[in-house]
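Summary of Year 1 activities. Much of the first year was spent building the evaluation harness for sequence design. The harness presents a backbone, in tokenized form, and records the residue chosen at every position. We chose the following record to illustrate the format because it has been used consistently in internal testing since the harness was completed.
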């Protein structure tokens, strides 16, 4: 684990406390993230929160996520101003009449733009494996690719049972 990851964990733990210890949690998180195509990305700027819908994919180790956004958007501007983000994924559409069955996960971390080169190819391939229809969008010069280094997940079931998990811990 690198020094940057340790610092991110320390910052996140100050805000949210110690993690849970459910050994099945990583697989539950993996399944939810694999089944859902979209997430709500939370950014901030000027003292105000902002949420937007993104198509996303996560790395096999669940320690990073990737998404694309046009450069001429508020989302891009806010990401450029503040790299701390949250990504919310839930399955409420699967359980419209059974709210206690809804499962959600929030990933917190830092987002950074991925520039052209081998890293761009790696992360865009991950995103396009899940969303092949986005290829023209992702390859457009007017679109930026962002990678989120995920520090922690908050997994919620039954609207009140919250468990925390850190990838790589």
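For this record, the design step produced the sequence shown next.
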């Amino acid at each position: 684990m690198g020094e940057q990851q340790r610092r991110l964990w320390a910052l996140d733990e100050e805000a949210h406390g110690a993690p849970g210890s459910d050994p099945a949690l990583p697989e539950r998180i993996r399944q939810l993230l694999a089944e859902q195509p979209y997430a709500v990305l939370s950014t901030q700027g000027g003292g105000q929160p902002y949420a937007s819908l993104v198509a996303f994919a996560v790395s096999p180790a669940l320690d990073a996520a990737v998404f694309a956004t046009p450069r001429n958007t508020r989302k891009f501007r806010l990401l450029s101003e503040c790299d701390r983000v949250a990504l919310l994924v839930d399955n409420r559409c699967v359980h419209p009449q059974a709210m206690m069955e809804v499962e959600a996960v929030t990933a917190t971390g830092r987002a950074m733009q991925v520039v052209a080169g081998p890293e761009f190819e790696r992360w865009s391939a991950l995103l396009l494996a899940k969303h092949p229809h986005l290829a023209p969008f992702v390859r457009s010069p007017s679109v930026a690719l962002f990678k989120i280094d995920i520090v922690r997940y908050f997994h919620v079931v039954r609207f009140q049972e919250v468990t925390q998990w850190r990838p790589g811990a």
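The CA atoms of residues 29 and 120 lie 25 Å apart. Quantitative recovery figures across the full test set are reported in Table 2.
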